[in-house]
């Protein structure tokens, strides 16, 4: 049930009434006392607050109006009024009227003639004439409505009686005046009322009396002293164990919390047991009213980062939506459509304005990089009013906001549905699926629905703030409807919560709320849909299904604001829980009324309907506020934003992000695969601005590509663009060209991983590890995790998100919850060997290729099981082991190679294994090469002798002998001893020729074979180490060719 402004409600003070039956409406109407001069200055003709014994009729609008007028006066009777709070004004009036209720309870439960007795005490103390002067002066300075309006004179009013209802008893107005007099004195005593004292100043101050006030002109003080004394002689009253006299009872809230109206109201609720019926709870609304005013609308920035926790989700039911086969491996690229088309026009040197004009080459490049999802931002028909507002505010090139929509049709300037259909077809041919936004929370302020179905929006027939004015341009393009933005938006001095709608067909004016998420200012080009209206919910669902029929992926903008708890918090708060959006506290509802209005989660209904009517559409929720798990596990969204990925890794709050992963997998590992991870999004700074373009960027980007969930890549991220594109941009304003170094590094390090997404997308084989340093502590900066697909494919990632070097090992995975078939859960861990599917038995080895260095590493599985996997990481270094081969060592080759490597990497595993299989052969080769290097060294130093040539010949012969034996063992045509000797002869003669050329020995006879010019050129070539080694390589190959009698020597030598 919606609460209408100014609705009356019954107040029960349980602890004062001792659980008795609620009293009927009282017999007298009491008013909040305001000085006549202030009333005249402000034009306050009617009562601000009224009570009839147990019925309070508050008026939040009147409180706002009065506060606004007082602030406009700047000073009232010398007191600053520029910062007065409407919420506190309302709270003060509410306290005053509740005190009247306490007087009524005392009168009804203890002493019906209490007012007569107390007034008699005043008459006895100051005399009847002075008492009459006191009542007349009070009624003059604080006149009741009839007197102020001139419908009754003071004397006539005091001699008359008043009644609340025709059949009820009439009450002497003298009693009403006397009771108000009592409350006037208590109001002036209350320190928390001090900012408003000029409204009801009795003139009494410590050490001074203000002239022309009731305190100065009458025996007001003496009368009250007598009243206090008489009150102490009357029967006490109060909650059990706390009975006091009436005046002391009325002072108790102010004594308990002398400086805070909010605390006084809270004290009344807690100590007097103030409760109200289901359409009220106005004491809580008054607290909310104050909270609304004090909530900052220009928040200083994001609050402290916190790891995701799931304690509040443990009682929620589990109902994940199952993925279709294509969904887990989706990689989404965001593109601001208008900006992208303008950039493409620049790149290709021709106008590209429509979706069907996007070149095939762009789509080919995208697909080749492993990107198979394209999110087109800003393709719907936008709000004309939004564009007008932005241009009025100074940007003549602005389009409307991409999230202020007229309707869900493809914009005609982008080619409409025909252009979209063409693009979709070309994308699907390349395996690329299209994504689009759906903005469920609001429409543009001049949308088709605002024109035709205004009842779908939250609004009021009354302007919520008296200071609002709507004198600017009419933003409507429809002659039958007028639309006005609040004036102060144009001067940037305020951002109103409503705009004005005039239906010219019937003259009706409505003030419709702008979209708002309570974190800052309202979105002033939007209109807030009312999700308590079942017709509105049904209409939004139909729009969602409409989008689902055309797109493979729907991104729901700000989806969290439509969860029931946030619809309630923002727009229809529980009494006492308001304050998120200004003026909404007065529309609070009981839990029962709210649940009747919206019995089920809107998003769960959407997911279920889409599962029936559009099952091949992926539903992606932009949701924050620690609702990530709830949106996927309970509401059933396929994917949900994971903003912690960007925020925590950017700020290197690594322990918090590792804790987020740990908490998630301990609660439900399935949530991890439903995260959308990103380094930037359209609302944030660009990736290069947040992460740079060096090793840190590529480390985090590697995590983006290899963590479970969906990677989302920002517009311009790969190219290194620094400009953040506004949602109203039609083009980029910076002239940026792609950073080719950055693009090339993506090609080498990131795109291969994106093409392998199926290996990383799921969570069945995902395991996070603590990195234990060599000193024995956990390095929270290092992310180490494994994942895989099927029974065989596995990968292992290390990334050090810190500038400091680290060395250590991973051994045991962090705990995660495993679900049994019977629904029970248990925490499990796995060793690194188990996580990689290794058998730690004897003779089992793992060969792993690290993609960045392109080196192979060899591990004994038994060592991985017992000791873990050890690595050393420089600052921001990444290691990606994505090619893993499990082998059983049948012939001892792996053992020999492992012994040789001792943890070092090698470029070619097959070559290394070949060497390990014939150690004597390759040892002989090393000695032969060593002898050739010795020859080269001595030659370059000019100290060559015949021993160096002979030494090289001997070692070469030893190698050729081993080689001949190996060829024979492999079943080939084994070379004989003659071939071995020929090989040696080639080596020795070749070295002698090199020596003769370098030293130009006449006795060598080279001049008879080569011209002097050729000899000079050869000598010059051999003048460097590089030249010498080139000739040595040639001689070795020539000698090796002698080992194969059937070889074509010229071919071999080439």
DSSP strand tally: 38
Share in β-strands: 5-15%
CATH architecture of the largest domain: Alpha-Beta Barrel
Provide mean pLDDT, rounded. Answer: 86
Order of strands in the sheet with most strands: 12-13-16-23-24-25-26-27
Radius of gyration of CA atoms, rounded to a whole number:
43 Å
Termini separation comes to: 93 Å
Structural class: alpha+beta
Largest sheet: 8 strands, parallel, barrel
Helical run tally: 40
Structure description:
- This protein folds into four domains: 9-294, no CATH class; 326-641, Alpha-Beta Barrel (TIM Barrel); 766-907, Golgi alpha-mannosidase II (Immunoglobulin-like), CATH 2.60.40.1180; 918-1053.
- It has 40 helices and 38 strands.
- The strands form eleven sheets. Strands 12-13-16-23-24-25-26-27 form an eight-stranded parallel barrel, surrounded by five helices. The protein has a six-stranded antiparallel β-sheet with strand order 28-30-31-38-35-36. A five-stranded antiparallel β-sheet has the order 2-3-4-1-11.
- Helix 37 packs antiparallel against helix 39.
- The radius of gyration is 43 Å and the shape is elongated.
Key terms:
4 domains; six-stranded antiparallel β-sheet; 15% strand; 1054 residues; Immunoglobulin-like; 42% helix; 40 helices; alpha+beta; eight-stranded parallel β-barrel; TIM Barrel; disordered C terminus
